[in-house]
Amino acid sequence: MYASYFYNAGATETDVFNDIIAILTGETDVNNLSASCDKTNTQIKTDYSPSGWNLESLSGSQAVLSSPHSEDNTREKLLVLDSSTFSSGYLKVGSAKSYDPSSGLSYAYFLSSPLSPKIDLTNGGRLEIYADPKIVLFLSYTGGTFSDWAGVCETKLSPYDNKGWALIRDAFVYPAEVTAFSGNVYSWNSVALSSPLGREPKYNGSEVEASRILITSPSYKLLSEIPSVYELPDNFGAIFDTINFPDGKTYIIWSNDIGTSDRVAIPWG
Q1: Quick one: 176 exposed, middle or buried, by C-beta within 10 A (0-12, 13-18, 19+)?
Q2: CA nearest to 36, candidates 82, 2, 5, 80
Q3: Using one digit for the tens of pLDDT, what is the confidence trace for 63-98?
Q4: How many CB atoms lie within 10 A of CB 34?
Q5: The whole model's pTM is what?
Q6: What are φ and ψ of residue 111, in 5° steps?
Q7: Cα–Cα–Cα angle for 37, 141, 189, nearest 5°?
């Protein structure tokens, strides 16, 4: 699922937050979104995959969403969103190691404000949302400025078992739980990304190298890839250009570093 969500100047916190949750949990009709939504420009596409995320809890300004792990459906990846920071200009994006309806979240962790998607209720703005059953990503555009892309992604359970998901932003992930080669277990420690696997998508009749983005570390027992996302060469194309890949899918170009030279490709649908 890919959504370009535009909201009007003077939008309300409740409207925008509820729209985001609705989009992530399967709403595909723009006309069903709130009065704060700019319905003329907003678009929701499900060409390749539904969102695949379920609402576990909505209490006040905080929502908890989940999606089963593709390798073990007894494990539920968790995305935690909080709108209480809208007045400070951003959407609070986080996760937790577990959720129980009676006791709430356990070991929750949130990205800091500079790393989070921005929200501008006064002037209006644009929030790009990509979701499939393995990943949720946000990229905001407010006041002529892009945010880092940020969200939650699934991590592989083999060759090393781990909790099964991580927060992600820009060039780092923060695994919910991972074991170090020393034997110690850590939660929410940062791990840098790498992109050694190349492929050749087509763009305007020309070939361009794209790479799968890997999660690997000399310190932690973790070897995975970021689902659905490819890294592109620096300065390739323009933000929100589209590109056709050999798999038959159309991808849309995002920046992963506040709108500068870095580029990634996200499925457009």
Answers
A1: buried
A2: 5
A3: 999 999 999 999 999 999 999 999 999 999 999 999
A4: 17
A5: 0.94
A6: -65, 150
A7: 110
